[in-house]
Amino acid sequence: MTILSTILEHNEQFVKEQQYEKYATTKFPNKRIVILTCMDTRLTELLPSAMNLKNGDAKIVKSAGALVAHPFGSIMRSLLIAVYELQADEVYIIGHYDCGMSSIDTDSIINKMVDRGIDRDLFDTLAYSGVDLKGWLHGFKDVTASVKQSVDAVRHHPLMDKTVPVHGLVIHPETGKLDIIEDGYSKVSAKND
Fold first, then answer.
1. In 3D, which of 106, 76, 94, 89 has the Cα closest to residue 168?
2. 90 has which bridge partners?
């Protein structure tokens, strides 16, 4: 039995037994927040529990390392849509300790791509086209600095509402303890004084 067939078998029972009813909510976040966090599997249930979030409380956007890598990429678009269309009044950038993006070996990733059938000549084509593949795949050395960089990218984005607090936190993936890196309220109040 494949993973997909196992999922679909479970899903059939889930729908048949109407287990979805306990998750009913609207598309608008009850706590009016949007979170950008890492896709790390340890955070799937830990992060919402550590923040006392229930289904429907927050918009959650996930990416490798909780990075805002491009000012007009899909991550930033998702945050802007959450603020302007989906009633999020605050943004939380939440990285985590022991993040895989802090130890990325880009040469190893490229070799794994080749092992899975990607033609090595493609890398030359990408480089010729101006794509810095190693830079694009690269992570970060310090999660705190990375969170600050993403917070700054969101806070100073030309399309972001300057009255929206943008917070930066780092979670411990074993305990769920949150360390505050940037208090978005202090930055907003300083601008409004």
1. 94
2. 33
Name which of 162, 158, 188 is nearest 71 in CA terms.
158
pTM: 0.92
162 vs 157: CA distance, rounded Å: 9
The 8-class DSSP code of residue 61 comes to: E
Q: Residue 179's beta-bridge partner residues?
A: 170
Q: Which CATH number fits domain 26-104+139-192: 3.40.1050.10, 3.30.750.24, 2.60.120.10, 3.90.79.10?
A: 3.40.1050.10
pLDDT tens by residue, the chain, 193 residues: 999 999 999 999 999 999 999 999 999 999 999 999 999 999 999 999 999 999 999 999 999 999 999 999 999 999 999 999 999 999 999 999 999 999 899 999 999 999 999 999 999 999 999 999 998 898 899 999 999 999 999 999 999 999 999 999 999 999 999 999 999 999 886 555 5
